[in-house]
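Input/output pair, single chain:
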Amino acid sequence: MPDRSPEQVLKEIQQIAREAHSWSEADTCDKIILRLLREVGGYGYLDYKAQEPSSAGIPDYTVLHGSSAKWFLEAKRYGLDLSHDVAIQVLNYANAQGVRWVVLSNGRQWWLYDQSIFGTVADKFVIGAELFQTPQIRDFLKAIGKQSMLSGEIEGYVKRLRLEHELRSRLTNASSDLVQAIVERLKERIRGLTGEDVAECIHDLIYAPPPPPPPPPSAYSLTDLVQRVGELATGHRPRMLYFPDGSEEQVSSWKWLLIRVIHWFDSQNCLPKPPCARLEGSKRYLYHLEPKHQQAKMNDPVPVDTRHGPVYVEGWMSAQEVVRGLVYLCEQAGQDPSQIRIAVNGGQSSEQDSG
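Output:
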């Protein structure tokens, strides 16, 4: 198999992880955590060693064992949210062993701790990354990757993160010494300048939203489609789905397009709790905890794992129903339907697209 980019590996594992909510810790390690260490982090099978399950307080894996760059990995099952309390014993063990870096992961959340920092467990927390945030998790895995750990590049990564944190927190605090120093230097040039003025301006500069990605060619937004659904959607199949964060999915039917959008909303923590109606006041649902609508069974229920638990998506819907339902779902999720774009092909499809 030819070498694949980190983005390709992440996309595959993200797809696998959509079915991972009921996995055990062993499944999570095998299918997600260790694969990411090998295929994105650059580790080999001999670079890490598992501990005995009965070893209380000892981390699950020692990575780069036998070298001065060794670090500890504590793994949890996919469905268990991480907390700083989980890291206490591992950090104590790392302190006793003279190991600086500790990673805590359940496959979808990855947290890095620096044992050399004096203070509480929360003080030792450096950075976290989410599996479904591709640039974020890619950079995190590179930072804890084999080359970075062996060369000491991890220290530069952490130093930059700490600097960003200090600057963000102090430059957006009107009473901080840094902001007051700026006021002192500029007060003669800007009459009436206050710390609040400086902090507010810097906050706006730091947190200005990035420009949206350029619209892909030959793709229509959900807003366009709902207005011209008969012309652009009915009788056609979707080809590509483009999300606001720049990610994209290849799709071949309106049913699977609906399911992919639900997955994406779920990954963004904005999926409305079930049941979700197709339209306001409708007795038929886009998805529900049970394979039925308010007064009838679903014709083609598709089980989908979400953070709300397993839900059933109605797969027997026309292109028009899917498009209108997705616009309503965007409204309920607080998302802009104009930022979700769909490329369609010219091939004919049945009105009730259950494929």
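The first strand starts at residue 48 and ends at 50. The radius of gyration is 24 Å.
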